[in-house]
Amino acid sequence: MKGPDVLDPMKQLEDALVLCKFGRFHLRLLLVCLVSNMATTVATTTASYVVTNAECQLGIGNVEKGLFISTSFFGQLLTTPLAGIASDAFGRRPFLIFGNLFMAIFCLLQGLSQSFWMLMLMKLGEGMASGFSINLVGTMLAECTNKNVRDRIMVAYVTFFPMGQIIVVLFAWAILPRELDVVLWKGYFEIHSWQLFLFTCTIWGLLASIQFYCLPESPKYTLAQDKPEEALEIIKKIFSENTGSDKDTFPIKSLTGMRETDTVVKASVRKQLTMVVFNIKYLFRKPLVGILCLVCLMNTMVTAFFSTIRMWNPQMLTIIENYESTHVETTRFCVMIDEYYVQKNSQVMTSNITNIVEEACVSVISGSSTYKNILLISAITTLSIGSCVFLVKYFTQKQLISVSLTLCVFCSVALHFIRYSVMIAATLGFTTSLSIAAFSFLNNITIRVFPTSIRSSAVAVNFTFCRLSSVVGNIVFPLLIQYRCIVPFTTLTVGIGVAAFLSFFLPDPSKDNKDTGDR
């Protein structure tokens, strides 16, 4: 048994990370996280651009659009729980390397697809691959950053998602509007602009995989595995890279071994998995089980909102752009959306009566206005979330969640009274940024509250509910919006309102872990 003068090893590690400061290693880690988030953004958002441009070519109807857009989230739903358990047993780094690599492979295979179902199957594979890495990027970043700057770094990390969206939009704008058709075998193997777009997107997963291979394992995970010497060696390398000093000059010479109750047995794969599963039971004990349920419930509502709105932005803005180009005056947001679906349903009914199937498909192509408005949304989202880096220094994450969700409700309601595409895009940008900010703060609370030995499992459970809500939201949304635009938007807004109310019951890790840092 340890004497009272022996420090807790995780407390020692937190002190060691403070001595490492913030420097070149963390900038390199942030760059890797940005590239990895680009790969994840590709996995989740390229479907929105593909369905808009390949609607007639692949015979995609409204139901197929919803299925395809939700496929990547369904893939993440399948693998996220497994990734959480496995990464607590075998580390963060292997899953970050192979998750990003397989995202690139499946993105390439999507570009080679010649049918909708082949395309959908490859999108499912890409989603499954992203499920192995998406929830680990933030965990890895948090576990390598000292407690003095952790909150600000984690908020800054969230800006990578809209930044990734900006890059994807620029790629889409440069490639999709062009008629780039390569016929290698007519009717069997043809390459079009949307496939070339997917080819260019494979680079992000490949680069992220290579970069994570060049990074060390998380020192906190290594220490949780009862490997204090290895954890200290990682810390020394971080110190040396950040300060330029020799690693042997690091003032801390040893880390105390883990307490017996925290030790993960260094044994076979079977025993490691058994120990992780054994540790998961702590997720379902008070007070952690209550926190987990609250966070999962809130994130389910928040994710359903921003994921659905974000994925359908290209389609809705394209409809609005075409409405403005064919009408002298614009009208309210939902009126323009409703008119499009009324006309589309009318065309389908007419084609069924006259047996002219070809006339049922009217592809609405995105123009410059749509891409500019999507860039506006992404820019507003990036700047809004970026401002939270400074706000988190003066307000707790719990307070910021409550304010963000409340403002999101007001913006969502205001959307129904706006007429012009630029104003609609700006409002969508604010609603998206506010909901994503709340989502990021909720994830940060999850990472901060749960101990290292079960952190990835807790994040995985949380992300599982998030992906489930994304799947349901993106399937149900196109079914409801083609009848009345106001119905799905009202449903999503009510969910955000409920989440805003529940935010008052969240814990505050900034106060609870102020002295010791995360466990």
Characterise this structure:
- The chain is mainly alpha-helical.
- It has a single domain, classed as Growth Hormone, Chain: A, CATH 1.20.1250.
- 73% of the residues lie in helices and 1% in strands.
- It contains 20 helices and 2 strands.
- Strands 1-2 form a two-stranded antiparallel sheet.
- The longest helix has 39 residues.
- The protein is globular, with a radius of gyration of 24 Å.
List keywords for this structure.
519 residues; mainly alpha; Growth Hormone, Chain: A; two-stranded antiparallel ribbon; 20 helices; 1% strand; globular; disordered N terminus
* CATH superfamily membership: MFS general substrate transporter like domains
Number of domains: 1
Number of distinct beta strands: 2
End-to-end CA span: 20 Å
How would you state the average pLDDT, rounded?
80
Radius of gyration from the alpha-carbon trace, in angstroms: 24 Å
- Looking across the biggest beta sheet, what order are the strands in? 1-2
Number of helices: 20
Helix content: over 70%
Low-confidence stretches: 1-6, 257-267, 354-360
Instruction: Provide the succession of SSEs.
Output: HHHHHHHHEEHHHHHHHHHHHH
Largest sheet: 2 strands, antiparallel
Form type: globular
The CATH class designation is Mainly Alpha
Domain Major facilitator superfamily (MFS) profile: 29-511
InterPro entries: MFS_dom, MFS_sugar_transport-like, MFS_trans_sf, Sugar_transporter_CS
Organism: Plutella xylostella (Diamondback moth)
Transmembrane segments: 29-51, 66-83, 95-112, 154-176, 196-215, 288-309, 374-392, 399-418, 424-447, 459-480, 486-506
